[in-house]
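Section handout 9: paired folding examples.
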Amino acid sequence: MSRALIVVAVSLLAGPGLALAQIKGKGIRLWNLTSATISGFELSPAGKNEWGPNQTLNDKDKEVDHDERLRIIGVEPGRYDAKVNYAGSRQCFVRDIEIKADAVFSVSDKDLKDCNK
């Protein structure tokens, strides 16, 4: 009986996050392949200019370094435009990104368009 209680207690402590991860998989993730650290990353349905929240706030240091991955939250699979911000007020756009469920999508320097600096 005490062994069953321990299993239940451990399941309750680790269960919600663990169960959610198992149900949802790894989620949608951005892979920063640009040559700089991203300080802001917002998504909008392609062509709509309806920007969502800054996804870099989901990261522990609020930035996405080169070759780092960032979990994207609150976004459904589909086609999106991205607003990418860098230190020093540099801002670029990436158009028509295909985002798939439980998949990684990347942004590299060649994807950046309409940069202000």
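Moving on to protein 2 of 2.
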Amino acid sequence: MPDQSIPQSLPEARPPVDAAEGVPSETSSPEGLTRRRLLGTAGATGLALGAAGGAVGYTAAPSQATPLSSIGAGEAMFHVKHQPGITQGLQARGHLVAFDLAAGAGRKDAAALLRRWSETARRLMAGEAAATDDTDVARDAGPSSLTVTFGFGNSFFTRTGLEKQRPVALDPLPDFSSDHLDKTRSNGDLWVQIGADDALVAFHALRAIQKDAGKAAKVRWQMNGFNRTPGATAHPMTARNLMGQMDGTRNPKPADSDFDQRIFVPSDSTKDPAWMADGSYAVVRRIRMLLDDWEKLSVKAQEQVIGRRKSDGAALSGGTETTAMDLEKTDANGDLVVPINAHARITRPDQNGGAAMLRRPFSYHDGIDPDGTPDAGLLFVCWQADPLRGFVTVQRKLDRGDALSQYIRHESSGLFAVPGGAAKGEYVGQRLLEA
């Protein structure tokens, strides 16, 4: 799933993000450090010590002289134009969780819940403790690039009496031939995405969000995922998935001139309700990778399925990872170098009327089935201004002959409206719930 199922990783050693735009900033101010954001002398000194120690085992050092690493120091802002967790780089650990409102809970209860959740997210993303009953799980860590993102499912609007505010874009997704969906692990009234570069920081946020739900909502489903830890490679590079493929080469980038119009709902949209301005739509799919079957293929056969070299992600037509794919190139026998059913060919925007989406998933491994097969794959999350033009268009094309389809299975699905970021003094969804 290189070109449409998994995003290109952004630089792995990420600085704090700018509060105004939610994009990486080059510098950070020493003011406003929290008790768990001890930047210390992290930078190059800490990294050099780590490299030296790695050659001979752990190096003893006085506890008071151990600074927080650059991973722990990363901080994302809560009060931004677009909710955090959309344009930030891939995080090492993630939790996706859906909630259903409790019986009898309505609009007022939902508003109170989103107010609590927003305050908790703001505090934890700044490296602070939860306002009440903090578990201390993340006491010793920095913010670790924690992001918490909130969305609304189709059923939320019926439960709260807000049917007239439900976006048309939230109409249920169509059925696809690769679907083997478990309805108990699909959809939900509310959706929360949690990501961080430290597992304990991510779990701390998950536990705080669950506790904040109280009697207003109960967990419908939860999924746990991971990515490569930032800084684990010698230089920033495109992520690899559990099939070993470099994946996400053609993911849209914030620097693209049409990025915002593809990913975010414009403030003057005539198709979407006003409360969705600067928001986006998230499609969430649990995609099982049939790894035992995949790993029986030779590397050459795997590359033919994908349409890209496994070693460096370059198209089979030649060049480097970023060289444009030549769809017409043939070999000495007159056969297409990039097969007609190769995943990377089928998912190209120029083969789908320009349809594109920002993929930002996590890999997952949930153990071994009784027959010995791994329950592993992708927690696919993609973002777009219009899911019908983005995800649905591409998935319909894949349904008609993607070579990768026999090695994957879609096991759960959800579609959520994710409003724009909350301004200071606001909570996420306030413009919907208090309209």
